[in-house]
Amino acid sequence: MTRSPVLVDLKFDPQTIANALQKAFPDRGSINLADPVNSGADLADVDYAILWKPERALFSRAPNLKVIFSGGAGVDHIMDLAGLPDIPVVRFVDHSLTTRMSEWIVLQCLTHLRQVDAYRKQALDQHWHELPQPEASEITVGVMGLGVLGLDAVAKLKTMGFDVIGWSRRHKTIDGVTTYDADNLDAFLRETDILVGLLPLTPETTGIYDKALFSKLRQDGALGKPVFINAGRGKSQNQADLTNALSSGVLGGASLDVFEIEPLPAEDPLWTMDNVVITPHAAAASDVRALFRNVETQIARLERGEALEHVVDRATGY
């Protein structure tokens, strides 16, 4: 039986993709749109596509797709596309991606707890001075978004000794963790010293991290001022409000991996703020080898008559 090749349209490093595809999908092959030889390829018979910010005309070129696999944890780059067919969209859920995200979140919480930037500045000035700092148990980390990534982050932050609480639109129960839902956002914020953003991007979460939200975070906690950490989606933060909150002292600091515009423009004031850690959307970079293995697994499930895993709910957008 002739099997349809897997369509790959990923805006990652082209050589990394090409190398990974040499061993991926051995029984069906692939069409890599990053390869110029495939720029005009006939996609009419393609069943499966792996996409990250694909070309706008893709769905007209590939009208018979059966499943779309996201190239990363987020799916807003697919759900917002004009002409999106009514077929399953599958999120990338993988241990390596989850672990990378949790590592970054724990690193940033510890960076602010242990005043890493302040000590780095002192070292540059050859200034020997111990700064007062609380224990992790004195700090409440509030995690917004309790999906796969959020739950792993919660578990690892608790292991480090932080007091951890969680928020999600719909109520979730986590052993040993106080959780809040959409009706109790203000109560959640009042308890939070470090706010961790891991929300998917939907119409409801676009711009949710704004002036009003930042002003409700705990202002008299052990850190002195609250801290904002965002590794979810850039458009969930109102960047002007965020910048103002940092410059005015409403926020004591931030660690940001995602932004409204990426790459972050050179003239953006966030670059020069002493209390801001910036990383280039690298908190949980997708391992394309793991991505392709995940897609192979899901295609095999489907072709055995089993249900796909991690399918996006079109009603919620995640």
TrEMBL record:
SUPFAM superfamilies tied to this protein: Formate/glycerate dehydrogenase catalytic domain-like, NAD(P)-binding Rossmann-fold domains
InterPro entries, per database record: D-isomer_DH_NAD-bd, NAD(P)-bd_dom_sf
Record-level Gene Ontology MF annotations: NAD binding; oxidoreductase activity
Coiled coil: none
Keyword line: NAD, Oxidoreductase, Pyruvate
Signal peptide boundaries: none
Domain D-isomer specific 2-hydroxyacid dehydrogenase NAD-binding, chain residue ranges per copy: 108-283
Species annotation: Rhizobium tubonense
Name assigned to this protein: Glyoxylate/hydroxypyruvate reductase A
NAD keyword on record: yes
